[in-house]
Design brief:
6-stranded mixed sheet; single chain; 14 helices; alpha+beta
Length: 517
């Protein structure tokens, strides 16, 4: 006999109801069975612990892989091979600065500690790893210099003061909820990069969780202006250097828009705020041609320090912004002569930003990790609009280069399309040897050429190399071009690789990211 589906279901429900009534009868003395209301709980705990342990193992494996890449087969110089035979070389790990990071400093330091542990294991006693705690006062001093003056060559200073044989220079970036950690190992005496490594680490949900609150652009400008003017000791003049995208040195439409808004708020707050600074003036950071040509910078002095001078009340403001999932984090610092500074940091909701404002610029022709000064020769590169300048079409650029000691100099211009031109030395400026502390202007006064910007607009760069000996006979045949003519190298990386391949040469590098709009 076949039951219809509806009758079958009805009988089943009646049977279940009878069983339930029997189990609930208070006179039934059979012990009731305790049923776990959340039978998945124990299983989840086990799975969670397994997942955590798997994540820890993957992280340790990544650190170990990076350590092997850095110490496994480096391209040592002959001098360093001799050092390995007689001594235990010291490796110092360059510390991160909070203002250069897209994540909190303690989180970044955890990655550094993980790599340090892996390096100790990989070195097997052949190297001494100088960690953050051992650097102690040296690290603190470097950080203070970086905060006070944006030190000309902080990596070079750390090389000298830490008295290490190798320096591990790191760069940290975010790709969604992944941290990308890259390191290069540098011989401190020669500036030679002997190995590189990169690893990716998944951030925990707690680390990536974002606060949904944020400011509007207007609100951020008002809050920043009030805070900075309130905390500055005395204000007469503020020079605006710009708001750059992260650590790239690139200016964007968003950065210009916000700094214009901030300048307007400075004027309003200074005139009507509680301090009533009625005589505050603002200007873009630019050094007039007549004064720029005659500049003589003191040892380790930057162009920005020179322009601030010793007069109280003169400040320079600049900052960076970081593109996060739901926010734009803006970091501003107001500098004064003598190292005094005040800072502001706030988040703007991405939904509050007009769609026509460019947030993420196209890649610069020099990668971020390679754009900072590197090497034992104290090499400083700037322009008449300071470091990482921005120019409008029709404006002219003059460069300023200084080496801390006698050195041979070569400078190149890298266009947005990757084309490279040697700009120094050239047929107008043939001598490439610089005396220590001497400031070289490119072009020099009276030279019959100029760097005047024309379309197309974009992100370009200047790259300079300083060596302890003349290497032109080894470089020029491989570039095979005269000054101001396109080189055969396809990009800056190929050119830099050529310089870094020179054996037994002390090398320093300096870059200038140039935004043309």
């Amino acid at each position: 006999m076949r039951l219809s589906l509806s009758i079958f279901l009805m009988l089943t429900l009646m049977m279940l109801s009878s069983v339930a009534s029997a189990q609930s009868d208070p006179q039934d003395e059979r012990p009731t069975q305790q049923v776990d209301e959340k039978p998945w709980r124990k299983k989840t705990d086990k799975d969670g612990e397994k997942t955590r342990q798997k994540s820890v193992r993957a992280t340790q494996k990544t650190y170990a892989s990076m350590a092997r890449a850095l110490l496994g087969d480096p391209h040592w110089s002959e001098r360093f091979w001799r050092l390995l035979e007689d001594e235990t070389p010291k490796i110092a790990i360059h510390p991160f600065k909070a203002e250069d990071l897209p994540i909190p400093l303690p989180e970044a330091q955890a990655y550094v500690e993980g790599l340090s542990t892996a390096l100790v294991a990989q070195s097997k006693g052949r190297y001494a790893i100088v960690g953050r705690q051992e650097l102690g006062a040296v690290v603190d001093e470097i950080h203070q210099i970086g905060t006070r003056t944006e030190s000309v060559n902080p990596l070079g200073e750390l090389m000298d003061r830490a008295r290490s044989d190798l320096l591990a220079v790191g760069h940290l970036a975010l790709q969604k909820d992944w941290v990308v950690l890259s390191y290069k190992l540098v011989e401190t005496e020669s500036g030679r990069i002997v190995s590189t490594a990169q690893g990716r680490f998944k951030r925990s949900q707690g680390e990536v969780a974002a606060n949904v609150t944020g400011l509007s652009l207007k609100g951020a400008a008002v809050q920043a202006a009030r805070k900075l003017l309130r905390d500055a000791s005395k204000l007469d003049h503020v020079m605006v250097q710009g708001l750059r995208y992260q650590t790239s040195g690139v200016h964007t439409a968003f950065g210009r828009y916000f700094m214009e808004m901030l300048s307007d708020e400075f004027r309003k707050v200074s005139a009507s705020g509680p301090r009533n600074i009625n005589n505050l003036s603002l200007s873009d950071f630019v050094v007039e041609e007549e004064r720029f040509r005659g500049l003589k910078l003191a040892k380790s002095q930057t162009l920005e320090e020179n322009q601030l001078g010793s007069e109280a009340g003169r400040y320079l403001i600049k900052g960076t912004y970081w593109v996060l999932a739901d926010h734009i984090e803006i970091r501003l610092t107001l500098f004064q002569t003598g190292g005094a500074s005040v800072s502001w940091r706030g988040r703007v909701l991405r939904s509050e930003i007009p769609e026509d404002l460019t947030l993420v610029p196209p890649p610069a022709p020099i990668e971020e990790a390679d754009s900072r000064p590197l090497g034992p020769i104290d090499l400083y590169l700037s322009s008449n609009k300071g470091e990482n300048p921005q120019y409008k079409v029709g404006e002219e650029m003059t460069l300023m280069v200084r080496a801390g000691e006698e050195a041979h100099l070569a400078c190149y211009y890298v266009q947005a399309d990757g084309a490279i031109f040697r700009i120094f030395p050239n047929r107008f400026m043939t001598a490439d040897k610089l005396s220590g502390g001497f400031v070289q202007h490119i072009p020099a006064a009276g030279m019959p050429f100029a760097f005047e910007f024309a379309p197309p607009r974009g992100v370009e760069a200047v790259k300079c190399y300083a060596t302890d000996r003349d290497v032109s006979s080894r470089i020029i045949p491989q570039t095979a071009k005269a000054a101001f003519e396109p080189l055969p190298q396809k990009n800056e990386r190929e050119l830099t690789k050529l310089y870094r391949s020179l054996s037994d040469v002390t090398l320093s590098e300096a870059s200038l990211i140039v935004t043309v709009h």
